[in-house]
Prior knowledge:
Layout: H1 3-18, H2 23-33, H3 39-51, H4 58-73, H5 87-90
Helix pairs in contact: 1-2, 1-3, 1-4, 2-4, 3-4
Amino acid sequence: MSDKKRQKIYEALVEGAYHGLTDESLHKFTVERCPKTTKKNIVLASRLALEDPHVKDVNALQVIYALAINLRLEGRTGVATEENATPAESQGVTAH
């Protein structure tokens, strides 16, 4: 991915996060702004936002981080998410 393309995806992520978008709505906003992007490209571009010292909004950074993690882990088997975790797993309790 070119630096120019990564920068455009980064800008869409930050703008959407600053507008209060989260999760799927942020992903949709980013894909609408950058139609040919992939999940991998979004994850890579999100790293730019996390490393950018000018992005100081904690909520925006958390939303971008959460989206990157969700996209990175999406489709993997054996990965517990809030949707498919048992109540004990979602509270960090594991069975021995």
